[in-house]
Description:
The complex is a heterodimer of chains A (about 120) and B (about 120).
Chain A: E1 5-7, E2 10-13, E3 19-24, E4 31-37, E5 44-50, E6 53-56, E7 65-68, E8 75-79, E9 88-95, E10 106-107, E11 111-115
Chain B: E1 4-7, E2 10-14, E3 19-25, E4 30-38, E5 45-51, E6 56-59, E7 62-67, E8 72-77, E9 86-94, E10 103-105, E11 109-114
Parallel strand pairs in B: 2-11
Antiparallel strand pairs in B: 1-3, 3-8, 4-5, 4-9, 6-7, 7-8, 9-10, 9-11
Amino acid sequence: GAGVSQSPRYKVAKRGQDVALRCDPISGHVSLFWYQQALGQGPEFLTYFQNEAQLDKSGLPSDRFFAERPEGSVSTLKIQRTQQEDSAVYLCASSLGLAGDKNIQYFGAGTRLSVL
Amino acid sequence: GENVEQHPSTLSVQEGDSAVIKCTYSDSASNYFPWYKQELGKRPQLIIDIRSNVGEKKDQRIAVTLNKTAKHFSLHITETQPEDSAVYFCAAMKKTTGTASKLTFGTGTRLQVTL
């Protein structure tokens, strides 16, 4: 079946603009994660949803970052008043459940955000 | 919180040779350790994983070993091929009850397999 899908693949924003990044998880996957990957670094956790509930947002770097998953499927990561330091690849991952093989995370190809 | 260190940052091997990448983790509550391969501009893809109830797992040319006492785990690729060239990330996940858990990643190893 289809994997995790993210759009847009590339986004260029002027400093101060708001952006919205979309993630379509694998159908039926309960858990959804957002990660930020700076150039040459490993992904870093931003936030986690279990169905529609945002259970962990400890990785969001500032209150300019906001994520939602209102119907427990598609998720949107919104960044308000973008800054140059927000430039990165934003990865979405989903997993089927909570434990055992069900906690394997499958990643999308990411959205590369460039803030000018 | 969890901290994962990964070495080396770059690794160049000749085709047919073996490659070894090592990671250490800090949180003894971590119990799941996946390895992801990421080609330029592509999604991270899971290539192998290990859980803390086993010490070694093998899948064709790829193997992972885990030493819980020392809190380190390693990826071994034998008979390397040019298509193995990519960035490899190790990660750790802490056991939780009732919720899923985030992955904490290492900083990556750029593997180059030369002809």
